[in-house]
Specification:
Molybdopterin biosynthesis moeA protein, domain 3, alpha/beta, Molybdopterin biosynthesis moea protein, domain 2, 6-stranded mixed β-sheet, elongated
Length: 394
């Protein structure tokens, strides 16, 4: 059985970046930029006002504090003025500076007297003026390749005139639940049945990452039906199955995956929860078979699936591992490396509190009080209060 580190390494070395695609700018949110975006023009493209006020010639203020207002400039107007000696022009924020002017005095620092503008507080030279090209000059790199595109980056690209960009393609994912005991939420539930929370968990996690997915429903414990549905899922970049991956008589997933031609990379990891995790590949598709317990599915999503998706999209697949101090004693039976639901609070440093009433991998409800997993190494049976521990925030 592989260690966690070995399994993670095998996943990341197996998974490949997906090809590039061109998308509309806002559809690139969360993607990795595949090529530099360069400024096609100076930004700002002209000298402009940073305030509502009056554009003037700074040197005139040495001789007088009253100027003749010759007109008004609104943002976006193509109207142009020439400001000569002793003149000014009313100007709105974002408007192009009129020819001859080099400074803007704020409106609140003036007093209007007919067509004359009295300057109550003299500005500095070029005050309240954004100079042409002061942010970026034509040809400057606005965003370098492999930039992760967030709202700010999207806005920068838009300000440079981009409408479409090249990014590493988002993977498409198929989700499949297995088991005779599984029932969809909203349906009648009989004795011995449970609702299908795992698929909802996976679909929600993918939606949060803006990853497109296809839900293939619930498949009963029948080889022929399962094989047909898995073959459908293998048309995706990533196929995720929950349930049926252990060693019971009705745990059919590993056998049927083999029948479908899926190459097993590993089956089983020395972790708790999540021991029976299966990982394999076929052609350009990779497959995860996850245990049926919901906490195991959540742990697997955080530890393996999210980094897999990141790698496919060209991002660096890392785990957000931090260090903190334990707020209480922690005891357990030593064995596999454990990812224990915990509450992490930052107060000058991270303080980690394991969830007391956690009842095991089927107890999804207790995770409401947690926001991460404390990492407990295999041989450890006791951790004292104030011990230094590693944890992963969700």
């Amino acid at each position: 059985m592989l260690s966690f580190e070995e399994a993670f390494s095998k996943i990341i070395t197996t998974v490949k970046r997906l090809p590039l695609e061109e998308v509309a700018l806002v559809d690139g949110l969360g993607c990795l930029l595949a090529s530099d975006i360069k400024a096609g023009f100076d930004i700002p493209p002209f000298d402009k006002s940073a305030m509502d006020g009056y554009a003037l010639r700074f040197k005139d203020l040495s001789f007088q504090n009253e100027l003749l207002c010759i007109g008004e400039l609104q943002a976006g107007t193509s109207q142009r003025f020439v400001v000569n000696k002793g003149e000014c022009a009313a100007i709105m924020t974002g408007s192009a500076l009129p020819s001859g002017a080099d400074t803007v005095v704020m409106k609140e620092d003036t007093e209007k007297q007919g067509e004359k503008i009295r300057i109550l507080k003299s500005p500095r030279i070029r005050e309240n003026v954004c100079l042409k090209g002061e942010d970026l000059q034509k040809g400057d790199v606005v965003l370098p390749r492999e930039t992760l595109l967030g709202p700010l980056e999207i806005s920068l690209a838009a300000g440079s005139g981009c409408s479409h960009i090249k990014v590493y393609r988002r993977p498409n994912v198929s989700i499949l639940a297995t088991g005779d005991e599984i029932t969809e939420p909203g349906e009648d539930i009989g004795f011995g049945k449970i609702f299908n929370s795992n698929s909802c968990l996976l679909m929600s996690g993918l939606s949060k990452m803006k990853i497109p997915y296809t839900y293939l429903g619930i498949v009963r414990d029948d080889e022929d039906t399962l094989r047909s549905r898995i073959e459908e899922g293998l048309r995706s970049d990533l196929c995720i199955l929950s349930g049926g991956v252990s060693v019971g008589d009705y745990d059919l997933v590993p056998k049927v995956l083999s029948m479908c031609g899926v190459e097993k990379i590993f089956h089983g990891i020395s972790i708790k929860p999540g021991k029976p995790v299966f990982f394999g590949r076929k052609n350009g598709s990779v497959v995860f078979g996850l245990p049926g317990n919901p906490v195991s599915v959540f742990v697997s999503f955080c530890l393996f699936i999210r980094p897999t998706l990141d790698k496919m999209m060209g991002k660096k697949p890392i785990l957000n591992i931090k260090r903190g101090r334990l707020t209480c004693d922690y005891n357990r039976k030593p064995g596999r490396k454990q990812f224990f639901p915990s509450k992490a609070i930052f107060d000058e440093r991270w303080l980690i509190t394991p969830i007391k009433d956690y009842h095991g991998p089927g107890d999804l409800a207790s995770l409401r009080e947690a926001n991460g997993f404390m990492i407990v190494e295999e041989k450890i049976s006791h951790l004292p209060k104030d011990a230094e521990v590693e944890f992963i925030l969700w």
